[in-house]
Structures are given as C-alpha cells and as structure tokens.
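Sample 3 of the quickstart, ligand inosinic acid:
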Amino acid sequence: MKTLVFASNNAHKLEEIRSILGDKYEVKSLKDIGCEVDIPETGSTFRENALQKATYVKEHFGFDCFADDSGLQVEALGGEPGVYSARYAMMNGVSFEGDKDNANMDVILSKLANEDNRRACFRTCVALIYEGKTHFFDGTVEGRIIREKRGTGGFGYDPLFIPEGYDKTFAELGNEVKNGISHRARAVEKLAAFLKN
Ligand code: IMP
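Result:
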C-alpha cells in the first residue's frame, strides 16, 4: 500500500477520497503527519494555491501529496470571488460576526442586484505531486446565481447556486445529489482514475 498525503484536515473531504481510492492507498491528513501550520495560499489561481499546498508538504515532510483549492466564479463579476471565495466579505470591507458564509453571499447578492447575467460556476483544482512529477485535475460545475438564498444543506455559497439542468440550489439538493455532480467530485474522480491506473 502506498502512502499519499491529502493536504487537508477537512474530515468530509478525507472520508470521500479514502472511500473512492479504496485500499490501494493509505491517505494521511495534515494532522496525521504532524503538520500543524496553516499552509499559506497566496496564489492568484486555484492551480497555484493547490500546488503551493502540495509543494509545502513535499518539501517539509517528504511525502507524495495532493491538495485542492476551490471557489465560485461569477461571470458578471469578472470571475470573482474566485480564489477569494472564503474571504470575499472581508475583502470588500464588510464586517460581520460569526456567519462568514452569509456575509459572503450578501456581498454577491448586492453586487448582482441590478444584473441580469447570473451565470456562474464552481471550480476545483487538485494538484498532485507523485513520483517526482506534478499533475493537475480540474473539475467544474456550471450554473446560475439566484436572487435570494434557498435551502439549508451544504456550505459556502450553496444556497445561491443552481446547477445547470436543475431547479434547486445545491443547498436544497442535499449532499448526495451535490456530491454526484460537484466541481470537487469531478476533479477527485479524475485524480482517482489516474491513481488507479
Ligand atoms: P476550499 O478551497 O474547498 O476550502 O473552498 C474555498 C471557498 O470556496 C469556501 O470557503 C467556499 O466559500 C467556496 N466553496 C468551495 N466549494 C464550495 C461548494 O461546494 N459550495 C459552496 N461554496 C464552496
């Protein structure tokens, strides 16, 4: 069995990837290898950020490794929030207490208040450093931003996003449907196909 580090401590993501990869790989988290630092993500693309995290683990801990970075891109906002998805409210000078996801969504809604073009997508990039080479796997789900939040499932911008071909938001569709079509699922499927060959 080969050991691979997933540069994350997100229990849900770890569980998902372990079940897809089966028993051919032992997937360790950052905590498992004793990495306590918040690895910097200073890139201007998902690819740069994912590679930055994977490279950090390879250089400091020596393990082959993969890392992911994701976010929402809104066409009418020139691709924002993009790599700033997690901190979009803060970046726009909006102060909030506690509920970061809601504050981020409110910024999107107010910027799009007079906008008819509601097209958006979620993107994930996975960077893998494996046997001396770097590989990238991208996943995208296209959709649109609605005018008010709907649904209680998921996280982040899920209550605002309706994927193409559906009439419910990710937050209304629930995890099972979402995980079948999401940007992350699509990128992780490509990673898994590569590792299984
Ligand atoms: P991460 O790279 O997966 O940690 O995602 C960064 C940020 O992008 C999150 O904090 C969310 O704001 C947003 N995001 C990423 N994936 C999703 C998703 O599946 N649904 C809603 N928001 C997401």
